[in-house]
Every structure is written in structure tokens, then in C-alpha cells.
Design brief:
Layout lengths: L2 H14 L1 H12 L2 H17 L10 H20 L7 H5 L14 H7 L2 H12 L4 H8 L3 H20 L1
Helix pairs in contact: 2-3, 2-4, 3-4, 4-8, 7-9, 8-9
Length: 161
């Protein structure tokens, strides 16, 4: 695959999945403008490192990893506290009525450490496989499984009380 084909693949991917990419960035920074900056920076990084995409079928995990790393870099630079808000959760509303309105999922997600929250977001909100989450986060699959289990346990404890 030549460089022009890779640029076209990246461009098509970003256009098709722009909402998913934005939602992922937003889950880190909780700010519309910062999330858009992260996506823009991620696109620049993807194009400048297009030679690292060896297989076109892996563009999703490849680009998600770029967005995750760019988000983490942004947070480190800004030294911001990452908090969730109502808009973040409403972005994941698929039209079903929540029968447990008293459940404070937002607060429970806010209280999770970043390394647990990102796994929850990627696995359940972005509907990625465990293996893809591990690849995006550059972690061992068993590490991701352990963190996912612990994150779910922490959420269960928070929500039960």
C-alpha cells in the first residue's frame, strides 16, 4: 500500500468515525474544544506516522491508540482533572429508557482511576474487543481483563451504595 492510499484510508476512516473518535477524546478531557484539538492533533500524528500502519484492517485500533496517547499527552500537559458530565453520558443514549434513574453512573465513572475508566469506555461504550483494547492501550490482554474486572467491581460497589 503506497503513502497516498494510506492517507486516503486515514481520511476516509476519520470522516466515517468522527463521532466515535470525538467521544473517545471527550471521555478524557470533558471539554468540547480540547477534544476537537486532540482529534486534530491525532490526525496530524496519524498522517505523519502513516508508515507505521502495516495492515489496513488494523486502522481502528491503530488510530484509537493515537487518540488515547494524544489525550493522555494533553492531560499531562494541561494537568487537568478529568471529570465526566451529563453530555458525555447522553452521547451514549441509544434510545432505551433507564429504569434505574437513581443510579449515579456518572459519579461512579468519575470516581474510577483513569486506567480503569478508559477500559470501561473502550470496551462498553466503543464496543471494542478485549484484544483491541489491549492493543490500543499497549497492555497485555490479561492486564486489561484484570483492570476491567476491578473497574466493574468498583462500579458495582459504588452503585450498590
Amino acid at each position: 500500500m503506497n503513502y497516498n492510499d494510506v492517507e486516503k484510508l486515514i481520511s476516509d476512516y476519520v470522516i466515517k468515525y468522527q463521532k466515535n473518535l470525538y467521544r473517545l477524546a471527550y471521555s478524557y478531557v470533558k471539554n468540547e474544544h480540547d477534544a476537537l484539538d486532540i482529534i486534530q492533533d491525532s490526525i496530524v500524528k496519524a498522517i505523519s506516522s502513516k508508515n507505521t500502519l502495516k495492515e489496513p484492517q488494523y486502522i481502528k485500533t491503530w488510530f484509537y491508540r493515537i487518540v488515547v496517547n494524544t489525550s493522555l499527552d494533553f492531560i499531562r500537559k494541561q494537568k487537568k482533572v478529568v471529570l465526566s458530565d451529563e453530555q458525555f453520558l447522553s452521547d451514549f443514549d441509544f434510545g432505551t429508557v433507564d429504569q434505574y434513574k437513581d443510579m449515579d453512573l456518572q459519579k461512579a465513572l468519575d470516581d474510577l482511576p483513569d486506567n480503569y475508566r478508559v477500559i470501561i469506555v473502550l470496551r462498553y461504550f466503543e464496543d471494542l474487543k478485549i484484544e483491541d483494547v489491549a492493543e490500543i492501550l499497549n497492555e497485555n490482554v490479561n492486564t486489561v481483563k484484570t483492570r476491567l474486572y476491578k473497574a466493574l467491581e468498583k462500579l458495582r460497589i459504588k452503585i450498590d451504595y
